[in-house]
Each structure stands twice: as structure tokens, then as C-alpha cells.
Amino acid sequence: MMQSSGNKTLAGFTRRISLWLGVAVLLGGVGAVLLVLQLTVFARIVADLAFGQHALVAEMPALKWLVFFLVARGLLQWAADMAATQGSLRLISSLRSELLQHLFNVGPVGMASHTTGETVTALDAGLEGLEPYFAQYIPRAAMMVVLPFMILVTVLPLDGWSFLILACTGPLIPVFMALVGYRAQAIMDRQWTQLLLLGSSFLDALQGMTSLRLFGRARDAVAAVAGMADEYRCTTMSVMKVAFLTSAVLEFFASLSIALVAVVFGARLLEGRADFQSAFLVLLLAPEYFMPLRAFSASYHARQNATAAMAGISKLFALPSVATCHSNQPITEPLVSVRCENLSAGYEANRPVLSNVNCTFARGTLSLIMGESGAGKTTLVRLLLGLLSPVAGRIVAEDVHGAIHAHWQSSIGWVPQRPCLIHGTVAENLRLANPQADIESLRNVARQADALSFIEALPQGFDTPIGERGVCLSGGQVQRLALARVLLRNPQILILDEPTAHLDPVSEQCVAAAIARAALNRIVIVIAHRGAIINYARQVLRVHKGQVCSVPEMLEHAA
Ligand SMILES: Nc1ncnc2c1ncn2[C@@H]1O[C@H](COP(=O)(O)OP(=O)(O)OP(=O)(O)O)[C@@H](O)[C@H]1O
Fold this sequence. Notes:
This protein is about 65% helix and about 10% strand. The strands form two sheets. The protein has a six-stranded mixed sheet with strand order 6-7-8-3-9-10, with helices on both faces. A four-stranded antiparallel sheet has the order 2-1-4-5, with helices on one face. The longest helix is centred in the middle third of the chain and has 53 residues, at about 220-270. It contains 18 helices and ten strands. Helix 2 (about 20-50) packs parallel to helix 4. Helix 16 links the parallel strand 7 (about 495) and strand 8 (about 525). By secondary structure, the chain is an alpha/beta fold. Adenosine-5'-triphosphate (ATP) binds near residues 347, 371, 373, 378 and 379.
């Protein structure tokens, strides 16, 4: 099992899959031993056949061993790759759900500082960018130590000079790559920032398509996105240049080193101061000595890519969460009131939006929240919804037995000003609130929300597809559908933001009456400035200069 919390760094994530990576490195280590044995057997067979006058038949047992080593190495390599990839994919999948859960806990208020594009890029390309780091970079970094060390140990008793050449040239490669990598990291960071910008701008352009067309700025938006895509292309080419340069330098050092070993050993072979089998084995081992360095170099950019992506992911993980203490289970005892006690809240330090607010929302009472624009009505609702943490004070719910509940937000049904509808049929959208609801329940809540007549007038009734965000419906129809949906959940507390803002006078009357009916056995809180809903209010609260006060004269006026 993978632990889900803790150190949110590359090192911390690596520790979570240390078992998988350990298995991969162990299998790779066994493969390295088999490689040395395989080359030793091969050198002996060639020496025996060329200089020992042995017949091929006499070499059959050695040849069988050779085939065994080859097959076993292939299988071990496959198993090592599988272990590293499995661990990596499991980690990415668990990180994705962890990050999503964290963003749910942060909520829309905390997320406001991040653009949707940034978040989507971090969740998608960012997390995908970590996969090669764990699946390739880490195992290859370990193998870069294991295999060369084994080869050095094998070469030492065979030839001191070759040992010296390999031991001196080998470490030069990682040192040079670190130097190149230092410069490459800056380019990688730039590439990641450009990818974030590209993602955000593309999403902004899509979301604002209507406004851009209306203001005649569509071409500018297309040009801006194209410009960013081009910058991203140029930076990617710079990254490629660095990658090619790195591998060219590596090849240079590796070839030089192998040539030196060949020349030094070759000269002594000619002078008769060395035997062929040892010389041949050292020449076979020399390229293998550089092989893990080559593999490591090929995946070195994975580390830089992961470091750059990690910056964006860490920023999201660092957002403070506000909803971690919520229980998912609605309170079963009937709630009689929700009380704000000495509540203060704001978005910036020393700039409170609400100060020392005291108010009560009672069961069976439709409470109306009014106030001028920017007064803090939405802030009060965000506090009630648990999307914003109070700076001081608390909000509690009391049930019929007088018990106080601190975590009661799971009992809320919420209809925002712009409700979110998914791509699907009317019935599917309604069933988001209660997947088990039968068609009669859907009709019932639709009738209550004054939505039944327009749903039945749609070509396929409840089975009509309505597109993402309800593009095929009017603003008022979306609002009524959202009201029907929340009623299907039958919440104890109902909070609605301007529920009748988009309705014609007749529909407004019907929806206001439906909300009033819903308030008979619920705590209902409505933000509204005007309209029929005021006539049904039993409590009117005005948000003004950070305070919330009751306005009884509004009720008298309505009466
Ligand atoms: N996410 C935020 N970050 C910083 N300040 C915010 C944020 N949301 C709202 N504010 C500020 O808090 C104050 C109250 O805003 P709020 O949205 O609660 O007002 P409101 O009464 O709901 O207004 P409206 O009727 O226009 O929706 C405003 O000054 C607003 O600029």
C-alpha cells in the first residue's frame, strides 16, 4: 500500500515506491552479474576456438551457458523495466487522486489565485512528466553505479592500465553532464512556464470565445496562442540541442576511452606481455562500462523535466485546504437552526469583509440576504458552505435535541448563480443528486421547480441531451433544472444565489413559491435583491459595512 500524505517532493515520492524501485535495481544488478559472466564465457569460447585448437563440439556446454545468460538477462531486464514502470504508474495515479482531493479541499476560493489552465496542465502534463523520472531516471541512475563498478572489479585483476583508463574517464561523464544540466535546467524551467502559459491562454480563448468574437478580438487571441506555441517550439528545440550536445560529448569520451584501452592492451599483446583472452574480455567489457552512462544520459532530461513540473505541482499542494474536517455523511437528526457566532472573515489580512457577525437561520423560515454589490453576501454564503475559513468566530448547527454540530456542511444543498450542468441528458443531470431516483421522483422535483412543462416540451423529454453547461437551454431553464436537482437530494439546508434572476414574471412567481414550499421543513437561505421571492421571506438580513443586520421593515412592506 502506498502512503498518501507526507513529503511532497521528488525525494519523498521516490521513497513511496522504494520497494518497486528496489526490486528493479536488484534485478538490474543480477542482470549486470550475468552480463559479466556472459562476456567472460564468450571471450573464453573465442580464445579456445581461435588459439586453443578446440573443436566447436567441445565448446557446446559453454555455448549453452552463453544462451542461458542471454535469455536470463533479457528476462531480468524485462522484469526490472516492468517493476519500475508499475511503481511509477501506481505513484502517478495515486498522486493524481491525492492532488484532486486536495484541490477539492482547497475549494474554489483558495483556487482563485490559480488559472484553470495552470491547474489542468499541472494535473495532466505535469504528472505525466514525472513518470519517466521514476520509471527510467532513478533505476538508470542506480545502474550507472552498479554495472561500471562490477566491470571495474572484473578488469582490475586482468589489466591495471585498462582499469586506470576506465576509472579515470568514467566519472568525467557525469561531471560534464551535471555542468551541462545546470544550464539545461533553466531552459527546462522556461519550457514548463511556456507550457503553462500556452495551456492557460488556450483555455481562456476557448472559454471567452463569445466575448472575443463580439469584440472582434478573435484573430488577436488566435495570434497570441500561435505566438506562444511558437515560443514553446523554439524552447523545445533548445532543449533538444542541449540533449544532442550532451550525448555527443558522452560518445566522444566513451569512444576515446575504449580506443585508449584497445591501443594500450593491443600494444602489450603484440609484445607478448598479455594473453588474448584477457585482452578480448577487457575490450568486450569496455563498451558495456559506458552503456549505463549512455542510458542515464538519455533519461537525464527526465529529471530536469520532472523538477520543472514539480514546481507547478508543489504550488498546488501548498494551497491551504479549508474543508478537510468535513464529514461526507449528512446529519440524520433534523436540524432546527444554523447560527453564525461572532463571525469575522476576509480574503486578505487586515481587510475584513465581515466583522463580528451574529445571525441565525431557522428551520421553516425562508431567510433572505440582501445588500449592495460587494457588501459581502457571497462571502457569508462561502462561509456557510465551508469554502472559506472564518478568521474568528464559528458557525454551528443545532438539531432538535439541542445537540450542536460543528461539521454540518454535508447537509447543504446549494444552487449557485450559474449552476453547473454536465454533458448528458436532463435525467442524467438530475440524477447527479441521487443516482437511484426513479422517473416519478424526477417528475416530482421538476414540477416543484416549475421545470416539468419545459422538460416535457423538449424533443425527448427527460432523455434529451442538453450539452455541457446546458448550452441548449435558456438561463432560466438552467436555473429551474438546478433547483429541481437540489430538491432531489432533499437537503436539510438549502442555499440559493439569485434563484429567480433569469426568470420571466410568471416563472419567477412559480419558482419563488416552490422555494417557499421547500422552506416549510428546511433551513432556506436565499441571496436576492428584488422580485417575488421577497414576498415569501420570513427573515430579511442586510449585509452592510461588514455587518449583518435584520431588516424587519422589509417584511412589513412585503406583507
Ligand atoms: N476571492 C476573492 N479574493 C479577494 N477578494 C475577494 C474575493 N471575493 C470577493 N472579494 C472581495 O470581497 C468583498 C465582498 O465580495 P462578495 O462577493 O462577498 O460581495 P457580494 O455582496 O456577494 O457582491 P455581489 O452582489 O456583487 O455578488 C468585495 O470587496 C470583493 O472585492
